[in-house]
Amino acid sequence: MTDTSQFQDRYHIRFRGRRTTVTLDKILSELIAMSFGLTPDRADYHSTVQQWLQATLTDKLGENVPGGSHISQYARKYAIEEIARRELVEQLWNWRITKSG
C-alpha cells in the first residue's frame, strides 16, 4: 500500500529521468482528490493525486527540482495553495508583492 502512516501518503514522481518520493499529509491528498470530485475510497484516488503532483511540481519547478525532503515541502506548499480559498491566496500574494515592492 502507499500509506506511510495513517497521516501521510507517499507518491513516486519522475523528474529528469529519475524517480523520487514525495510525502504528503493525508488530509492534503484527500482534499486534492476531492477537488477532482473523487472520494478517498475510490481506486483512482492515489493515481489522480500522483498525476496532479507530477504535473504541478514539473510546471512550477521545471528543471529546478530540489532534492531530498525539499520536494515534499514544495508539494505541501502547492497542495495548500490548491485547496485554499482562491480569494485568500490572492490577498496573500498581493500583500507579499506590496511588501516586497
Describe this structure in words.
The longest helix has 17 residues, at 45-61. The protein has 4 helices and 2 strands; from the N terminus they run E-E-H-H-H-H. The chain has 101 residues and is α+β, with helices and mostly antiparallel strands.
List unreliable stretches of 5+ residues.
none
What is the first-to-last residue Cα distance?
47 Å
Our estimate of the beta-strand percent is 15-25%
Largest sheet at a glance? 2 strands, antiparallel
Query: How many DSSP H or I helices?
Result: 4
Lateral strand order in the biggest sheet: 1-2
The 3D shape can be described as globular
Q: Which percent range fits the helix content? A: 55-70%
**Rg (C-alpha, Å):** 14 Å
Tally the beta strands. Answer: 2
* Average predicted local confidence, pLDDT: 86
What's the SSE blueprint?
Blueprint: E1 8-15, E2 18-25, H1 26-35, H2 45-61, H3 70-83, H4 86-100
Antiparallel strand pairs: 1-2
Please describe the structure with a list of short key phrases separated by commas or semicolons.
101 residues; alpha+beta; two-stranded antiparallel ribbon; 2 strands
